[in-house]
Amino acid sequence: MAYADERGGAGAHAQGRARRRLFLMSSLVGMTPAIRRLIPDLGCRRMAFIPTASYAADYGAANRLMHWWWRALGVDVHVVDLTDARRWRIHDELRRADVFYVCGGNTFYLMYCLQTSGAAGIIRERVAQGVPYLGESAGAVAAAPSIDYIAPMDERPAMVGKSAAPVPGLALSAYRVVPHVHGLALGRAAAHIVRAHAADSRFVPLRNDQALVVAGTQARVFTTRAVLPLAM
Fold first, then answer.
1. Which residues contact 99 (CB under 8 A, 6 or more apart)?
2. What stretches of the chain show up as alpha helix (H) in DSSP?
3. Along the chain (232 residues), what's the average pLDDT of each consecutive run of 10 residues?
4. Which of 2, 7, 41, 210 is the most buried (most CB within 10 A)?
5. Whole-number pLDDT of residue 1
6. Per-residue model confidence (pLDDT) at position 192
7. Radius of gyration of the chain (CA)
8. What is one process in the GO biological process aspect for this record (predicted)?
9. b/e 23-33 (16+ beta carbons within 10 angstroms → b)
10. How far apart are CA 182 and CA 231, in angstroms?
């Protein structure tokens, strides 16, 4: 399915939209060939691998292990822990990165750490300059303008608070990805979110074998032949 992401505008903001390359997925399984088509020189790039969302999820250890997968493919992987008190190191790694990879886990915790570390603004700036953004599960949800819609799937940690004020996302795209549709563990929460926003075309439901690919102002859903499309 093809989409036209937000159009219009002028100047630097419009130029930033034209340079965007986003790959927003439920799961990395089976997605590498499609990612290589989006980023043909992936093996020559320096990757900022951000595992922070996984720290607040029971299944997070598996997500964090994916940095070894990227290294096996020849990617120069640098793990960027947003909870590191050395803010200068986080900022330096993000400014030197040629591609961002943001793990799955708890989206509210992820956005809290992106904001408090100062990473959110740097990522927005670099993506507007053309640095590709790969987001898995929570990393995909975080690309939306706000992340409150994912509450049926992700619990708000105490540090985020229970305020009714919207929790902003990275606003890399107008779309709101709903990951793990039909998934074994998270499918029920995903179905609830999809039903609640069925009339809003900005919400994009994704199975575990699907990804939303945004290139410039165009977006489409890509489906792979993953062996375990219903995992998670």
1. 39, 42, 45, 46, 47, 48, 75, 131, 132, 133, 134
2. 11-19, 32-38, 60-64, 66-72, 87-96, 107-116, 119-128, 138-141, 187-196
3. 51 64 93 90 93 84 83 94 94 97 95 96 97 97 96 86 80 96 91 96 94 92 66 44
4. 210
5. 56
6. 96
7. 16
8. proteolysis
9. bbbbbbbbbee
10. 9
- Confidence at residue 18, expressed as pLDDT on a 0 to 100 scale: 79
Residues counted in the chain:
232
What is the C-alpha to C-alpha distance for residues 93 and 123, in angstroms, rounded to an integer? Answer: 11
Which pairs from 85-90 meet CB under 8 Å and 24+ separation? 87/117, 87/118, 90/117, 90/118, 90/119
DSSP 8-state assignment for residue 44: G
Domain range summary for the chain, segments of one domain joined by +: 2-223
How far is Cα 14 from Cα 178, in angstroms, rounded to an integer? 26
Amino acid letter for position 46: R
Q: What angle in degrees, to the nearest 10, is found between the helix axes of 119-128 and 107-116?
A: 90
- Distance from C-alpha of 51 to C-alpha of 139, rounded to nearest angstrom: 9
